[in-house]
Every structure is written in C-alpha cells, then in structure tokens.
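User: I'm curious whether this sequence folds into something compact or stays loose and floppy. Could you predict its structure so I can see for myself?
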Amino acid sequence: QLELVESGGGLVQPGGSLTLSCEPSSLALSYYSIGWFRQAPGREREGVSCQSHWNGTIYYLDSVKGRFTISRDNAKNIMYLQMDDLNPEDTAVYYCVAEYADRSVCGTSGLTKAFSYWGQGTQVTVSS
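Assistant: Here's the prediction. I'll summarize afterward.
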C-alpha cells in the first residue's frame, strides 16, 4: 500500500526555520503533482503550497509567500517544504499530498483536497 512518510516537524522559536520532508513508499514523485496542507487546532485544513506536475504551476498561501518554499528532488524521490521566519500562526499539523491524474488539484488559485495520497501528518509548533 502506498504511503507518504513525513519527517522534520518539531518545536522551533519564532523567526526560526524547519524543513519538512515527505518520501513516498512506492511512487515516482516526478510524475505527480505535490503539495502541503496544514491544520491548526479548531481550524479548517488549509492548502499551504503546491506544485503542478502538468504545467509547473507553483502556488503559495498568501500568509506564507516569501517564507516557505516547496521543492522536490526527483533523484532522491523526496519532496520538501522549507519554512523560514516561522511565527506562532504557522503552528499546525502539516500534511504532504500527491496526485497523479487530476490536473485540477493545484492551480494559481490554490489546492483542492482531491489529492489521492496523503501523509500521516507532522506537528510543527512555533513558540518561545
């Protein structure tokens, strides 16, 4: 069964950085659109960033633009979310996602929740 295995979460002080990694168990990420969602306590799950396999579109949530960077290393088959200048509002469980067939999951206006594959989530806590 395909899995997306996340790592890299933890506790960081405001202004600090973290890099989240997500490695699939049995798919080649180079053929997939990828993305990251997050969910804070008591809040809806929101799309943070995505990269479309089909047209190269990269999207960032307004509140993370200029601070977060999505990337993938096709040779290592790993996707990343580099998070800089973190603030307490970034505290959430972060989920990586991947989708092969649906071209509409990632666009200039954001991500949909129709990604087929989801990671188990990793906690990011920003606190002094």
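Summary: The chain has a mean pLDDT of 95. The two ends are 39 Å apart (CA to CA).
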